[in-house]
Amino acid sequence: WRGESMSWYRDQLVNNAYKFDFPIHRPIFELSEAEKQLLWDGNKYFTGLHKFFQQLEEKSYKIQNRVMLSRYRGKTKCQTCKGKRLRPEAEYVKIGSKSIGELSEMPLSELSQFIRNLELTVFEKKVVGRLLKEIESRLKFMIEVGLEYLTLNRKSNTLSGGESQRINLATSLGNSLVGSMYILDEPSIGLHPRDTDRLISVLKSLRDLGNTVIVVEHDEDIMKAADHIIDIGPEAGYFGGEVVAEGNYEQICQADTLTGRYLTGRLEIEVPKQRRKAKGAIKIIGARQHNLKNIDVTFPLNNLTVVTGVSGSGKTTLIKNILYPAINKLLNGIGDKPGDFSKIEGDLSKVKQIEFVDQNPIGRSSRSNPVTYIKAYDDIRELFANQKRAQLNGFLPKHFSFNVDGGRCDTCKGDGEVTVEMQFMADVHLTCEQCGGKRFKKEVLEVNFQQKNIDDVLRMTVDEAIAFFKTYEQDKVANRLQPLQDVGLGYVQLGQSSATLSGGEAQRIKLASFLTKGSNKEHTLFIFDEPTTGLHFHDIKKLLKS
Questions:
Q1: Distance CA 113, CA 111 (A)
Q2: Which CATH entry fits the domain spanning 370-545: 1.20.1580.10, 3.30.750.24, 3.20.20.210, 1.10.3210.10?
Q3: pLDDT tens digits for range 342-385
């Protein structure tokens, strides 16, 4: 309600506030629920927000009204059902004086207590006895995996990765299946050590029911709890693929493998002898989205800061939903609406750019790969276009691209495989018969650099490619590829499809792309969302160095 045209609405509220005892000098987050509701609904003295937006909608042909609507409106609770999603009739049915909407808003620990303390007649017990047992059992499993603070109406897209994983585990426990095999891919992702203990007890419960539980995991606590461990190595990619040790935790520790050496301390991730001093700081005041309790947090600049805490404590909410969108909006003027907080202050002028590095895939198509993402492929194409055979054929750098027509195979369009649609079954991917999976036309593959054609180079691992290009004095290409080796991705093939990369690998490729840009970049605030996901101790050591 700023500016001349809107000040009338503000003046109505401010000038009449004393008539209904409204505290206009108190910050909105300190208002009671009734006072907040009054702002929305209004009264005979002032127009409420609901009516204000309704008036704007009625005149949405005016551009300024459309701008106001898009700027200030977001998703909020439905005023008819108060966010309970049900018609009034459904709320008339009560159990122990509570409606289904009220039960959905209770934390699981409270709800479990409520169900246990229900006073029922003999007839009611006979009718709902089986249902109550099921409800109690499922609530118990959710509480056992450490989710007692959640409510049943919490939206799934607001849950952290660790919370979602444990809900799935609780569902499996609730099904009470026996003689089944459970395969879990890194269930400890996003979990604090306290939560890992709870996770282990759930995994043991599944085992004790008479099931087999197989876990792909790097977490030391889960390894200690395992009955049997299979260690695959010795290293990654081309240098892996062998069983290097097998047995219980003690036997793995005795083995002369990377895992064994890290578990026994023969190898370790060094603790820095000297800590770096901060050069300024950014401060978030009054963060209060989801689980955050109106907290103030300071982030030092020119430092590596780790935000940690138990699963569901509000780490992702603080960083992903408040810090990142708030600074992004300040720097770029656009972006998602930040979560609830009072203000952001500190040395904001020092930060010139912000980058959120998550584990989403690095490209949208199956043709995207590490070498194109870090821009090293431009130099490789240039190198091949400068070869004598290429110049005789009139080939340009574009002829060595699998993203545009010219040199790529016309049948598979540079994919190296063709997709056969199977209607009601999963599609089948077959190696392209025209190019034999090599992606390029025959005449393009005849262009060689030191007896290697473009397909041979794309099939090289990063380590092999760096050695190859350095041998033949192509330092520009080797230097472009170096950051991939620095972040521990020396085993990845240059032309490996992004679809085959794990989330942790995709995140490290993004980190490598920033390293290739070097020190000429302005002061950037990097935010990494769980960069150690899927990483062995040895990989974490390489990542920290980067």
A1: 5
A2: 1.20.1580.10
A3: 999 999 989 988 988 887 777 766 678 888 888 899 999 999 99
